[in-house]
Amino acid sequence: MTAPLVVTRARRRRAFGSPSGYLSVALLLLFALTAVFGPMLVDKPRGLGADILQSPSAQHWFGTDDLGQDVFAQVIWGTRISMAVGVAASLIAIVIGTALGLLGAYVKRLDPFISTLVDVMLSLPLLPLMILVTALVGASATSLIVVIGLLSWAEVARLIRSNGMVVASMPYIDGAKVLGAGPLRIIGTELLPAVSPLIVVSVLLTAARAVISEAGLSFLGMGDPSSWSWGRILLNAQRSGVIATAWWQTLFPSLAILLLVLSATIAGIRYNDSRDPRTRGV
Amino acid sequence: MDAHEVVLSVQDLARHFPVRGAGLSREKPVVRALDGVSFDLRKGETLGVVGESGCGKSTLARTIVGLERPTSGRVLFRGTDVHRTSARQMPALRRQVQIVLQDPYASLNPRRTLRDALMQPFEIHRDLLPRAKRMARVQELVELVGLNPDHLDRYPFQFSGGQRQRIGIARALSVEPEVIVCDEPVSALDVSIQAQVVNLLQRLQAELGLAYVFIAHDLSVVRHISDRIAVMYLGRVAEIGSGHDVYASPAHPYTEALLSAVPVPDPARRGMAGRRLLAGDPPSPVDPPSGCRFRTRCWLATEACAAVEPLLGGVHPSTRAPHHVACHHPLTAPELVTSTKDF
User: Fold this and answer.
1) Of B66, B90, B171, which has the smallest distance from its Cβ to A175's Cβ?
2) Which of A51, A195, A278, B254 has the most Cβ atoms closer than 10 angstroms to its Cβ?
């Protein structure tokens, strides 16, 4: 009875037992807590401070910008938007990618169309396209989520499709078919549970990429002008011409982006490796 | 035997697979995995199908249960074409013909417990049994195939190969089929376990009136369970007749060669009957030989064999039972009859 639990527990231990595993998960948790509770503890950064362009000090941990706004507060508030956009966009990408990937893996007649669509999506220059579409629909957090989500499902679809095909050729799928299960039931109750560990990995990796895309688009002025995000801090630094002198204004948001992306990627890779008996540990 | 009604009728069934990477030639080459197979299966009967690997046994099984669509020919269940029914009739018809798969290790979803695996058929066919009665039915099925009801929450990896094959049989039985196609159900099991599973299949047949199409390459297992035996070679039936007749006096040279390859358990009798070793490999099913398909390896082949394709037909000379052989030079010359309708 407890065997699968033991298996899951062993897998979890294998995945997150090493320092890189538990550090990355701890960091992800820290970011998530910051996104949820940070803005409750730290005042929203406002302009009109007297201390402009201060370097990091005890009073302003990450220094201040040209308007005297606290960079630490900006990074804390930016965490919420950056993570929200990253998570929401990756969820859109996961849902589309998984649905199309499984459909392609199981329904042989649809596979050529889906594969071609995935190839086209993968070959598109994504950043210019994202800039173009965001500029057309207007800059807001919602449009960022939709644009990033709709343009980054292709890799998920390819990953899920190739793994779904392995499962789809298993004899037990034939068994379900002979019992009378239709394609939707087989995809939903046989293929989806089999690829679900991969979906966990994909969520992490896609979210990491979505955070980068969000920061990039915000830096280019495509973000929501009324809310804080890490890309917007960089944009402000660039706009006010202090990007070369006020290193603290660019270093800390960049560091936040780096750490979040790195921890999400490592957590994803660790989890993925733990499923492969050949690469346990390391 | 004719008193029994025919439940499954396979008529001139063919399944050709396109050859991959065949280029741009106009005439696309095909693998003739199954090339015109016909037989009837009566209620409560077991038809054994034997032949070496690649002769189309598994394709036959997969086409009968609807996993492959036939290139031509029909599979009739009580007169209804299994492959050409309306979508509404399909579920009810499909569940009448079930399959027990070859590999007990890959034929169960590793993520489902025994309970889930046996509940699944009732979730697919919701009208089969009211929800409240399903658990009792699952218990019943588990006991029917000789598994321990205390193991309902176990996962497939916690069962042995034989136990898993019992689960596969229970799943097939859950939807109350009349015909079960057994695609090499025991070839992956230990010999001692093979006997248990075969005996279980025989007991279930007696209790539930099932008809089996029993596919195997192990001739002794097939002999043990089958009422009639069909010998396949290169996508065709070479010989079909009652189990006793086929084994005691094979008419087709291929059947004789196949039987002579069965190991003799008694050392004193070894070497008494000469072993008939066939030269070479079976020809490619992409480009089968003209006339008789077996002629390239047959020691009796003449020019007629290359020119004219022998047709199935005849009755057994001594028992007068229908015994069809597709050969120009049969070993035990069955008396040819003009009509093949009686089979």
Assistant:
1) B171
2) B254
